[in-house]
Specification:
The structure holds 2 protein chains of 2 kinds.
Chain A (H helix, E strand, L loop, with lengths): L2 E9 L3 H12 L4 E4 L18 E2 L6 H15 L3 E3 L2 E7 L3 E6 L4 E11 L3 E3 L12 E3 H9 L8 E6 L3 H11 L3 E7 L3 H11 L3 H16 L4 E2 L2 E8 L4 E7 L12 E5 L1 E5 L2 E3 L2 H5 L4 E4 L4 E4 L12 E3 L9 H18 L5 H29 L14 E3 L4 E2 H9 L5 H8 L12 H12 L2 H4 L13 H4 L17
Parallel strand pairs in A: 1-2, 1-7, 2-4, 7-20, 9-16, 10-11, 10-16, 11-12
Antiparallel strand pairs in A: 5-6, 6-7, 8-17, 13-14, 14-15, 18-19, 21-22
Chain B lengths: L10 E2 L3 E6 L2 E6 L4 H7 L6 E2 L6 E2 L12 E4 L2 E4 L9 E4 L10
Classes of the chains: A alpha/beta, B mainly beta.
């Protein structure tokens, strides 16, 4: 296996990863950017496939940004490895990846910048594993990149600004939104508009979303929750009920609506898989109800020359993500002596001003995405929590009663989080359930991450090395 | 509902090709995302869960949840990270019947 070496490798080609790699390359570093997708842009600026031609050339702002970012990468000589899934990262930074043709590859670098973004949080309910129940963020991908409707009669549910984005996207693409089910009250929609006031371009965008929803006379159910989904042959039966301010179901009344799909999401969780493998220090952030890496103000983690940028460093959206990437790119360049301290100070000062301004808006949006803590108490014992291993809440409760207080202990007892997704889908829910019993998320902890981070075909993991190449561990003294 | 869920009138999707999902012939577009193509052709159930054998379909679409794992041209891969090629064969798999990787 040939190992190529770089000064800096960036994992994730979203806005933050692109900013970090372009900055580093501009400062003189040899840079590689890796992504599992077919094109650059990350989830937020994910374009339609290059085989699609827009009939009336009328690029959206997102596509314009995506094209501009890609041009920046190419112009500054950043090496781009698309369609490569990273499955292992070892200390001193050796990265192992495979591509869609099951080809394996490995790279080495002095500095590693992780820009792997987030994945979606969905608090389970009976029937959530049914086909046609898909994530809100997944729905945005389906709509804007794949140009496919989630359904003709769709219900959009959950919390945060993605509700309006998805509902408006469906209407624009020619679908029908049967209802919007919002965990929060109407007040949260007003407060999101008022925080948009700090950012005029997002205000116009936000008003556009609301206009689509209001003009189509879509019913909005506030302070409401999807209690259960029943999967009929070609349709979903969706039961909706009211919740109180803590998120608890407090009524027997149920409204039944039939739809052919349900788009639901309860916010985003920073992806810390690679950082956890490399042993960075983390803390539990109460405001966003998620674990974050401890970093300095340039987003360098507790491990030297390892950075986390973008929403993975704390959710605040695509615009601040770019600024975070710039800061990390300059800091990494300074550490590798590509730029002077004086230049570094001067340039980062300006970026901090912008970051502070943009983050204010992003953080208020992120706050709306955080679901109320009481929501977890509505999950019945018969609801599946771990989708990979089909583990229900009842089994988790039994393990807690038997004395499991730490999440990895519970994993060993129940197989929760042991399946192919490596616990990414169920970890947050399990930790919330456990925290209700043991008091706090710090005691519960996080799933240990082991390689492979993503499941890989066996022939990708097997290397063509000689026996002499295997590093022998020194024997322990007698 | 058997209507195609692909958005109309905005994009020319390019060359249409035949693909085979569990031996059924479907029409898709070269270069299109496989998960999206199956979903829009009303193939909502991609496989059954390993223990309780419950139907599962696309869910996260970003290569995280592993729900859309299929046997694509004889190799295990995620539909959401695969693009359509001509005459692609796609089969549902039971993860318990196949050695875990």
């Amino acid at each position: 296996m040939i190992i190529q070496e770089y000064d800096i490798i960036v994992i994730g080609a979203g806005p933050s990863g692109i900013a970090a790699s372009v900055t580093s390359a501009l400062n003189g570093a040899k840079v590689l950017i890796v992504d599992s997708n077919f094109d650059t842009g990350g989830q937020v600026y994910k374009p339609p496939p290059d085989t699609f031609q827009e009939i009336k050339k009328n690029y959206s702002t997102e596509i314009k940004i995506q094209k501009y970012h890609k041009k920046l990468l190419e112009e500054h000589g950043v090496h781009i490895a698309l369609e490569h899934t990273v499955w292992q990262v070892s200390k001193g930074f050796q990265i192992y990846a495979f591509n869609n043709r099951n080809k394996k590859i490995s790279w080495k670098c002095k500095t590693l910048i992780v820009a792997t973004g987030t994945y979606e949080r969905i608090i389970p309910f009976p029937g959530w594993t049914s086909p046609r129940v898909i994530g809100l963020a997944a729905s945005t991908t389906l709509l804007k990149s794949h140009r496919v409707l989630p359904g003709y009669n769709t219900i959009v549910a959950g919390c945060g600004p993605l509700l309006a984005v998805v509902a408006s996207g469906i209407i624009k693409a020619g679908g029908h939104v049967k209802a919007v089910i919002d965990l929060n009250g109407p007040f949260s929609w007003f407060s999101s508009i008022s925080s948009m006031l700090t950012n005029p371009s997002s205000l116009i965008q936000g008003i556009g979303w609301l206009k689509d929803i209001i003009f189509s006379r879509t019913p909005i159910y506030f302070n409401s929750i999807v209690k259960e989904v029943i999967n009929h042959k070609n349709e979903l039966e969706i039961n909706i009920t009211k919740i109180n301010s803590k998120g608890l179901i407090n009524t027997e009344n149920i409204i039944k609506i039939n739809a052919d799909s349900l788009c639901i999401g309860h916010g985003l969780i920073p992806s810390l898989d690679i950082l956890t493998i490399l042993g960075v220090k983390k803390f539990f952030d109460f405001q966003s109800a998620s674990w974050l890496a401890k970093t300095d103000k340039y987003f360098q983690t507790s491990v030297n020359n390892l950075y986390i940028v973008g929403d993975g460093a704390g959710i605040s959206g695509a615009v601040p993500a770019y600024e975070k990437g710039l800061l990390a790119g300059h800091s990494a360049s300074l550490n590798l002596n590509f730029i002077s301290h004086k230049y570094f100070q001067r340039i980062t000062k300006k970026i901090f001003v912008k970051l502070k301004k943009f983050e204010k808006f992003g953080k208020s949006m992120a706050k709306l995405m955080t679901p109320p803590s009481g929501l977890i108490q509505n999950i019945t014992d018969d609801t599946i929590i771990c989708r990979c291993e089909d583990i229900k809440r009842g089994e988790i409760e039994k393990a807690i009663k038997s004395g499991a207080i730490e999440i990895n202990q519970l994993k060993a007892w129940t197989r929760c989080g042991m399946g192919p997704c490596q616990g990414r889908t169920c970890e947050d829910t399990i930790a919330r359930i456990m925290a209700d019993h043991v008091g706090d998320r710090q005691t519960v902890g996080m799933f240990a991450r082991k390689m492979p981070i993503k499941p890989i075909p066996m022939d990708c993991a097997v290397g063509d090395f000689k026996y002499e190449d295997i590093k022998k561990v020194e024997e322990a003294p007698l | 509902m058997s209507q195609d869920l692909r958005e109309q009138h905005k994009y020319d999707r390019g060359k249409s090709v035949k693909i085979y999902f569990n031996d059924e012939e479907l029409i898709a577009y070269e270069g299109e995302n496989l998960a999206a193509a199956l979903y829009s052709s009303n193939k909502k159930t991609l496989r059954y869960s390993s223990k309780l054998k419950m139907p599962r379909g696309i869910y996260c679409l970003i290569g995280s949840c592993q729900e859309c794992i299929l046997l694509i041209n004889g190799k295990k891969a995620l539909a959401c990270l695969t693009r359509i090629t001509e005459n692609m064969t796609i089969e549902s798999i039971d993860l318990n019947d196949n050695p875990r990787v």
